[in-house]
Amino acid sequence: MPENLELQQLVDEETEAETKLHTRKKYCRYPYLGLLLATLSSLFFSLCSVIVKWMTDVDPMALAAYRYLGVLLPAIPIVIYRQEPVFPKGKRIMLLLRSFTGTAALMLSFYAFRHMPLADASVIVFSVPVFTGIFARMFLKEPCGLFNAFSVVLTLVGVVLITRPPSLFGPTVDSLGESGQKTEIWGAVAAFSATLFGANAYVLLRALKGIHFSVIMTNFGSFALCQCLLVTYLIGALCLPPCGIDRYLIVALAFFSFLGQILLTLALQMEQAGPVAIARSSDIVFAFVWQVLFFNEIPNKYSIGGAILVMSSVVLTGLRKWILALPQEASLRRNLSLLVK
Prior knowledge:
mainly alpha, disordered N terminus
């Protein structure tokens, strides 16, 4: 595809050395700041998923539109103040692709949060780092070996435990969709699709690491708002929330979304992708806490087992990326050489 070739050419030709030097200086001054920002990002995004599941009177696609309005409005004055080029030449295709994939991922994940147990949906959606390696191999020509294949298989096994298809588990085990919500199985399909789109968004965001976050968020918010409004209008779900607490929740959704997005963008710009992926997996922990605390849904042993497998795969994937970034002579890299195969 010409888009893929152009993406690869742009990544190969950009001044990577200058960008890495700039971000590494920040990293050395504040060695754990990137991890802290990524963890805080997970906290705010998990609160967004709670709001989406709580507001049953508003369609998830409409909530996605409100969410992106919250991303766009605060980003505009920042980009104007910094006098940044809103649509920089040489990065336009990547910005559009990142906006489309990120929007599709969020719309699908909102549908999953509404129609699945919160923790189960979060586990599937936030297995993104595992599949990022596959798309990084396709678009950025990064290496993809046996470990990547193992992590994908481990993640898929975890997803199977969460969804529990009757053809594999038989009639004695309740499958997803037999617990009172007929749309749960479609929620699982949406969650897995969101993972694939999200993995592509991660790859594109990494390729845009030299761009100021306000530029990325302005493009992302503008494109996403238009896409969400169009989809919401076509399905007849475009409406204002009723007066009262729902409107405050809409404001909170937009605010938490802006904070989560800006913190994630900053974390990826000042920290390696591997440690950020590990920190972002804390979203799964938050989801289990919120599911029990707010919705009184106790996860069963299959969901917990699947979550452990997926989270282990995410953590190992992040650990591997961190080890690959170490010098060849580093003792830690030699001791954990199995992870770099």
